[in-house]
Backbone:
């Protein structure tokens, strides 16, 4: 985890954005006219690998901020971990459903198609819960980061709104946040 905290902004950006997109474009170029099922299988894998690196970076930021005293009595660390890892389990579940629907080709298998029709109504509330969980964990990390930087708890959302927006818009926010993270990591 220390490696990702010591990394420069461009290294994080390359790992989260450039490598998965570059591999996907390379595979699409290689497999022009080939089976589209290969691309349908590889695309989610690359998406999940980039997202996994983002979540690891995000968890490292939260853990560092908490270690430097960036928690308050209103926010508990176990709830942060739950709200961070619930969307991960949801997306792994969705990825499995996507892979299974590709492998079993639901257009020609009516039994599997009826099982998917039973799962879809469950997935919508879980998606909303995963979205709310993600926003809460971003809010928590931005508050903990503000507290670790300034030494005082934020009094209003205006105090840590810039950090929240930088985390939310992570491809751009990495360039703002990572130098701050490097400074906090050196202070540790």
Residues:
């Amino acid at each position: 985890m220390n490696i990702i905290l010591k990394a420069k902004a461009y290294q994080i950006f390359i790992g989260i954005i450039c490598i998965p997109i570059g591999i996907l474009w390379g595979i699409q170029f290689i497999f022009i006219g080939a089976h589209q099922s290969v691309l349908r299988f590889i695309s989610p894998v690359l998406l999940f690998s980039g997202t996994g690196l983002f979540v690891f970076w995000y968890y490292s930021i939260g853990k560092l901020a908490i270690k430097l005293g960036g928690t308050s009595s209103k926010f508990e660390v176990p709830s942060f971990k739950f709200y961070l890892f619930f969307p991960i389990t949801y997306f792994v579940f969705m990825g499995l459903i996507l892979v299974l629907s590709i492998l079993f080709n639901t257009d020609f298998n009516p039994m599997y198609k009826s099982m998917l029709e039973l799962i879809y109504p469950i997935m919508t509330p879980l998606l909303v819960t995963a979205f709310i969980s993600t926003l809460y964990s971003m809010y928590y990390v931005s508050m903990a980061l503000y507290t670790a930087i300034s030494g005082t708890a934020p009094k209003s959302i205006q105090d840590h709104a810039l950090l929240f927006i930088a985390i939310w818009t992570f491809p751009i926010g990495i360039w703002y946040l990572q130098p701050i993270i490097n400074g906090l990591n050196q202070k540790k």
